Amino acid sequence: MTTRRSSKARQAVLEALRQAGAFRSAQSLHHDLLAAGEKIGLATVYRNLQALVEDGEVDQVRVEGAEALYRLCEQDGHHHHVICRSCGRSSAVTGPDFEVWADKVAAAAGFTDIRHSLEISGVCRACAA
After folding, report:
1. Alpha carbon distance 53, 60 (integer Å)
2. Helical residues (DSSP H) of 79-124, grouped into ranges
3. pLDDT tens track for 93-123
4. 113 and 56 housed in the same domain
5. Using one digit for the tens of pLDDT, what is the confidence trace for 39-55?
6. What's the rounded Cα separation, in Å, for the pair 114 and 107?
């Protein structure tokens, strides 16, 4: 994980994520940035979000039927999320059993330097009520 040089665009995207506080799409963040007077293109937002994900500063999830969503990492280290398909509420979760399983399956297939993502979606208690 290599942290890239800070830029005005990167700082603007980070600030938009701080303000959002929850998972948001790149297009939604771009709209917020434009509304705040930033002169930034959508492609620049996507590029910066991807770099922030690669640097471990931002979480990225893909919910079925939706575009990728982004949020500032609230937890250090490797983790996953469970997200409500109805309201978007999320919780960070860890799964040591899953981590062991993923490494074992990849090794059995002859792979090394394993990376993975696990996305779990459901309906939270509040939305299910």
Report:
1. 7
2. 96-108
3. 777 788 888 889 999 999 988 877 777 888 9
4. no
5. 999 999 999 999 998 88
6. 9
Closest CA to 69 of 26, 6, 113: 26
90 SS3 class: strand
Distance CA 110, CA 87 (A): 40
- Calpha distance 25→22 (Å, rounded): 10
| Helix (H/G/I), strand (E/B), else coil: 111 | coil
Domain of 8 in residue numbering reads as 1-74
> Do 47 and 85 share a structural domain?
no
List the structure tokens of 67: 């575009």
Element (H, E) at 47: helix 42-54
Phi, psi of 93 (to 5 degrees): -135, 150
